[in-house]
Amino acid sequence: MVTFVEASSRAKRSAGVIPVHGEEGFAGMRKAGRLAAEALDMLVAHVEPGVTTLELDRLAFEFARDHGAIPATLFYKGYRHSVCTSINHVVCHGIPVDKGLREGDIVNIDITLIVDGWHGDTSRMYAVGEISRKAERLIETTYECLMRGIAAARPGNTTGDIGAAIQRHAEAERMNVVRDFVGHGLGQLFHDEPNIMHFGHPGTGVPLKPGMIFTIEPMINLGRPDVKVLADGWTAVTRDRTLSAQCEHSIGITETGCEVFTLSPAGLFNPLAARAA
Ligand code: MF3
Ligand code: CO
Ligand code: CO
Known about the structure:
Number of helices: 5
Distance between the termini: 48 Å
Bound molecules: 2-amino-4-trifluoromethylsulfanyl-butyric acid, cobalt (II) ion
Strand content: 25-35%
């Protein structure tokens, strides 16, 4: 059974309870989401051959510190960094390391910044120099999957409508949706109800209501959907070692649709569109 509660009284997650937020929550998410997007914008100029993901992590940490924000992943369940950096066949939760990026790599950078207690969670793809045509196709398709999911996020639809829209587009492009990780409610909590699956059937799941706040963050593989987590306990990779991409926005359901809290102020969210411009 699904119940709904006022988000303001909420200190910890309880299963099956979906918070609905008011104007205060939307205002908080606007601020946190914008700063997280600005952090990812700042990194664009730094992603080039030779830069290490540890350097990118440090830049993100300093950006957060200088803007009065706290990186939510720092010391989260033992994680020790301000961003996740997932390169090529890494699906998500890649750990920053002291090793340079190489020409042709594609990398997802995922950041969550806490501003005044609210969590802005966003990730996007970066291309390191010239990338292959198939890597470009993967990034374009993943971006389009996210945007189709967002287009389905409105009252009258369900969480299943979001997943179905994403899965339909990925499979039409002969790519596959990762099943093992989902989008999530957030707000004053980092991970809350509801879960947002990036696959599924129209009309199933939870009805979307104004005030719900959650992420959509599809991971799309060029090959099989199967993933495994490496011995470090974090790094998820494709089992068949094919390329994977992800992008993520934090959104809030409104009366007529949704508001995206993590849009790039500089218009750099989709690296291919940004490059063409
Ligand atoms: N930001 C990720 C998400 O989209 C969560 C990362 S948790 C970490 O939900 F510990 F791996 F950083
Ligand atoms: Co997320
Ligand atoms: Co994230």
